[in-house]
Amino acid sequence: MDLTGMQQLAVVAAGLGAGMLTSTVGVASLVSFPVLIALGIPPVVANVSNTLGLIPGSLSGTFGYRRELIVKPRVVWFVVLTCSVGAVVGAVLLLSLPPGVFEAAVPWLIVLACLTVGVQPLIARWLRRHGEPGGSRGRLSPATTVFAGLTGVYGGYFGAGAGVMMMAVLSLGLDLDLRVVNALKTLALMVANIVAGLIFVFVADVNFTVAGLLAIGSVVGGYVGAHIGRRLPPTILRVLIIAAGLTTAITMF
Length: 253
Prior knowledge:
Distance between the termini: 29 Å
Structural class: mainly alpha
Strand content: under 5%
Largest sheet: none
Radius of gyration: 17 Å
Order of helices and strands: HHHHHHHHHHHH
Number of strands: 0
Number of helices: 12
C-alpha cells in the first residue's frame, strides 16, 4: 500500500516513540503496532514489519547501555544465546499457527510480569535471607534461563510487552542493579528482533517502506531512551515499567 506524506510522518514518529520505550520501559510495540494497524496494514504484515523496523532502535539502545553491559559479560552471552533460540521458535510459531492462538494469553502474561516487577525487591530480599550466606545470584539459574527463553519465544512471535516480561525474569533471577537489568532487557529485545527479522525477510510478507520509516525513528529514539533510562531512579523506573505494562495489557484485552 502507498502511504501519504502525513502517514509516513506518523510512522516515523511511532518509530521514535517505540525506540525510546525499547530502552526505557520495554513496551515499544505499544506505540508502533497500533499505528500500523490504524493505517490499515494487515496484522501479520504489521507485526513482521514492526519487528524489522525496531531493530535499529534496539541496536542504538543497546549501544547506549554499553557501560552497563560490560558489568556481567557472561550473563550477556547467556541472554544472547537464550533469546536467539527462543526467537527462532517464536518466529516459526507466528508463521505456522493460526492468528490469535498466542495473543489470547498475552494480556494475562503481561499482568503477571508487572506484578513480578513490583514485588521483586521483596522477593529478592527473601531469597537473600534464605539462600546461601553471602551468596549473590550473578548468573542465570536453569529456571531463569528457561523463562528467559520463553520470553524470547514470545518476543519472536509478537513482542508487545516482551521487555516487561524480560525485566521481570531477569530482575527476579539476578541480584543486579535495575539499570543493568534494563540494559540486559534492551539487549534481549535486540536479539529477538534481529533473529526473528532475519527469518521474516526471507519467508514473510514485509512492508519494507513501513519498516524503513520505523527504523529512521527508532534508531534515534533507542539511543535517547538509553540515556533517559540510565538517569531514572530505580523506583521511578520500576513504576514506569509497571504502568506501561498494565497499559499494554488493558489495550490488548
